[in-house]
Structure formats: structure tokens, C-alpha cells
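Fold this: TatD family deoxyribonuclease
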Amino acid sequence: MNPTPHIRTRGGEDRGELRYPPLPQPLTSGVYDNHTHLEIADGDEALDYREQLDRASSVGVKGVVQVGTDLATSRWSAQIAAIEPRVLAAVALHPNEAPELDARGLLDEHLAGINELAALPRVRAVGETGLDFFRTGEDGRAAQQRSFEEHIRIAKEHDLALQIHDRDAHQEVVDTLLRVGAPERTVFHCFSGDVDLAEICIEHGWYMSLSGTVTFKNAHNLRRVLDIAPRSLLMIETDAPYLTPTPYRGRPNAPYLIPYTLRAIAEYLDLDPVMLATQLSSNTEAVYGRWDADPIRSQTGPNDKTKSTS
């Protein structure tokens, strides 16, 4: 149940900067990290997922959504969620996985595996899925598109949230969601768009999940998004071990560092951090359900969020 983490190293950097940052001041109102990768270890400390969760709990992070990026990590995510009450799972094939799997004739088989995992009760999202044209050229885009559309179908079939990975493909992602129909609960993970994309999300009720990037000095577009986004459509995440917030940018990220991002957002919006944390927690539970309860299942229509009692 606790497989060896995937170790990521960064050659050429000061090894001292690969230590995890210190614990922040605890939040007085808890919040969730709605997108993290506990199976990946970074830097000089290969922290066990349980230690990661204990650190998070100690500073007011109530729970996490552990996100798979291929069939193996999606299975791991579902297994951990089944035994750890602070974890819910999201399962998917990352868009960059699709072209390689397709070339090997394995894409359909792996999509079928994701569909099986999506039926498990503590799997609450399909993700991260979407389109990524940063690393994938024209020859791989058809496989990405097919994989994305199948993930959307799986999410709707199982009445799960959808976590979008969108890199250099904003318009294509939006076009796909509008053409095939977005799931009722759709989240743009690590939102990287501008005001124009934010306005589209607002129009369709899609959630915008902000990561540590919103704290970066050059993240002017993201802060302009905060100026117009309804608080009811905002979420927060780490995408750990990546995208560590200021003042520890460049060092390994972890769910326990969420308070830095939350306080930076609250300061920019001139909001009480307690009020912001309460709103973000409410939003997160509206998307994934409560960590200690049955999953959200629509009963009578696309806007009915009554939880199943079965």
C-alpha cells in the first residue's frame, strides 16, 4: 500500500534548496488541497504519504485529492483513498501519456482501467485530463483529443467531477467541453488562463483552482482573474511537489504549504483568511463531496447534488 515513491531530482541546483520548507503558521479555519501528487517524492526528503498528511493536518489542511496521471498512479491513488480518511482520489491518464499509449496500442486498455477505477466510492474525480500542447506536437494531438473526450464520458457516466489539465490549449479545451458537454462539476486545475478564460468559466459555472503560481511576482494575469471571479467558483491546490508558493519557490511543495497560498490570496482580495478558507472548503465539498461521507451522485437531474444513501 506504500510503494516506493517516484524520485524527482534537479541537477545543477544547490542541494540545500531541495529541502522541504518549514511548517507555516496553522490556519484557524481548515481547507482542502484539491490537487496533489503524494506518490512523487522531491528533493532530499522522500516523505511517506502519511507523514505528508500529518504535516498537512497540523497546519489546518483537512484533506487532499490525490491525483493519478497514468493507470499505475491512479490505482495507487484509489488504494490510498480507500484506507486513508484524509484522502479522496482522482484517476486519469495525463494528456502527455495518451500519444505514447496510443502508439503502443494500449490507450483503449488503459482507458478501460480508468473507467473501472472511476466506479470506486472514494474516487471522486476524473483527472487530470485535458490537452497539453506544450510537449506534444501535431502528431500526438489526435490521441490526446480522443483520450480527453473519453475521460469526459467516464466522468459523466459515473457522475464524477472533472479535473482539467490545460497547457497551451485553452481554446481547444473550451471548444471540446462545449461540443461534447462538460460534466456538472468541472475544475480547471492549476488555472493558468487570463481574464478571457475566466469569463468563460464564470459563464458556464466551471471552477478555477489556484496554485502557488498565484503568489509569483509575475502572475499579474492570475491576480486579475481574482478581481472578477466569484468566490463560489474558486478552489485552491498545491500540485505538489511542483509550484511551491512564495517565499519558497524552487523548493519541494507539499500539501502543508497551502496556508502560504491561501493567505496571499486573502491579502490580495483584502479578505479575512478565515472567511476565505470557509468559502474554499465549501466549494471543495460541493465538487467532491465530504471526505467523511458518501460521494455526490445526481439523482434526478444535472443540478441535483443529493448524496446517495446506497
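Confidence is low (pLDDT under 50) at residues 4-16, 299-310. The CA atoms of residues 82 and 289 lie 15 Å apart.
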